[in-house]
Each structure stands twice: as C-alpha cells, then as structure tokens.
Amino acid sequence: MASRGPEAGRSHALDRIGLAECQFLAGDIRSAAAETTLAVQAARGTQSGRVRTQLGQLYPYTV
C-alpha cells in the first residue's frame, strides 16, 4: 500500500477496504475500525462505483 499511496485514488481506496475486511475476518476489530475510517476517507476522493459497492459490502462487518 505504501508504494501506491493515496494519489492512486481508486486503487488506494480498494486496498484500504480489502485490508479492513481482512482485519474484521481475523477478529482485530479495533484495527479494522481504524482501517475502515481510512477507507471511507480515501473513498471520498474518488467517484468510483466499484469503491462504493465494496464499501457497501464492508458495512455488515461494522454493525
């Protein structure tokens, strides 16, 4: 993720979403919540429908 960075826009947001999901599945709720926040912040910088869809799939983990 460090090599792509936030300037990669959509890819950066998708990376963050994927990492958050992995952390939820591993049971690391605190890290997952922090990563979800970063994912949402990254998603604000893109108009990607795929990013929005992936965020929607991440939502059930957050409730």
Give the gist of this structure.
This protein has helices at residues 10-26, 29-43, 49-62. With 63 residues, the chain is an all-alpha fold.
| Total helical elements | 3
List SSEs in N-to-C order.
HHH
Distance between the termini: 26 Å
Report the strand count: 0
How does this model look, in words?
The chain is mainly alpha-helical. The chain has one domain (6-56). Helix content is 73%, strand content 0%. It has three helices and no strands. It has helices at 10-26, 29-43, 49-62. The mean pLDDT is 91.
What are the salient characteristics of this protein?
about 60 residues, mainly alpha, 3 helices, about 75% helix, about 0% strand, globular
Strands, helices and their partners?
Blueprint: H1 10-26, H2 29-43, H3 49-62
Helix pairs in contact: 1-2, 1-3, 2-3
